[in-house]
Amino acid sequence: MPEQSHRGADPGNKPIVETRFRVRFYETDQMGVVHHAAYITWFEEGRSAFTRAIGYPYSQLEREGFSLAVAEVNARYHRPAVYDDEVRVIVCLEQLQSRGMTFSYEVRRTSDGELLVSGMTRHISVDERGQVIRISGAFREKLLAGVGRLERGG
Q1: Does residue 37 lie within any of the structural domains?
Q2: Cα–Cα distance between 17 and 6 in angstroms, integer?
Q3: pLDDT digit string (tens) for 141-152?
């Protein structure tokens, strides 16, 4: 089960949330190395931890009739993770616009801090029909208030 922590803001004054877990067997190949696609799932876990940390879980977005569709994903693989490594997924909100947002990610091995993967995702706000819409005012307000709370260490 992922463990979540709030790290506040980075030196660039951007909010950061971190989640930790161990590499599961099913995420590895025959040699025990994490399959490249697993990291994208880990990015998603990090985003979910981020929305929970600001007090507006992703499930609430969907109940309100909108979601954040992935428009772009980028992952750069630096070093492999292996079965049973504990990893940290560090998520930072890089950009918030009227209809979208961008997150950056670092996946690090907990034992030595080694950078395993870095990446980013861009998201666009869509309604239940898949039409692009403005990010809801309630989510935007909660996001900005939550960002302030993370920056204050709350």
Answers
A1: yes
A2: 5
A3: 877 876 655 554
